[in-house]
Design goal:
single chain; mainly beta; five-stranded mixed sheet; 2 helices
Length: 138
């Protein structure tokens, strides 16, 4: 079947996308610390770069520990952000507000960020890259 596709000039890019990491991802906080036991927020900045030669349909999933949240009450601890198509070599920056509350004690809080490469639509996952960053509450 592959030989037939080569005759017509088509190539199967799915296997190549699954084998290699499709994104370059940098995670930072601004400010870099959170005050413990207070209702205040920091900005999680996700800098995502498409390392492939193809346009990638992309979403980012952020998972927080129980004592942090995406709102002041810390009710929601997971969020999916759909970025659409990212062109080859293009950078996308996503800023997510992470809130602490009176239950946020002193310590380190791991935050998991996953960049997902989709095909067809957001229901089909092709590949993903997962990174973790630690937010310190002082």
């Amino acid at each position: 079947m592959v030989g037939l596709l080569d005759i017509f000039g088509k190539k199967n890019v799915g296997e190549e996308l699954v084998r290699k990491v499709p994104y370059g991802m940098k995670l930072t906080f601004h400010p870099y610390r959170l005050n413990a036991n207070k209702v205040e927020s920091v900005l999680l900045i996700v800098d995502l770069k498409n390392l492939k030669e193809e346009v990638l349909l992309t979403s980012v999933v952020v998972k927080l520990p129980k004592n942090l949240g995406f709102d002041q009450m810390a009710l929601s601890n997971a969020r999916e952000i759909r970025l659409g198509e990212i062109k080859p070599g293009e950078d996308k920056v996503v800023k997510v507000e992470v809130w602490g509350n009176p239950r946020t004690d002193l310590g380190d809080y791991p935050i998991e960020v996953t960049a997902i490469c989709h095909y067809r639509n957001y229901g089909y996952m092709l590949n993903a890259e997962k990174k973790e960053i630690v937010l310190r509450a002082v």
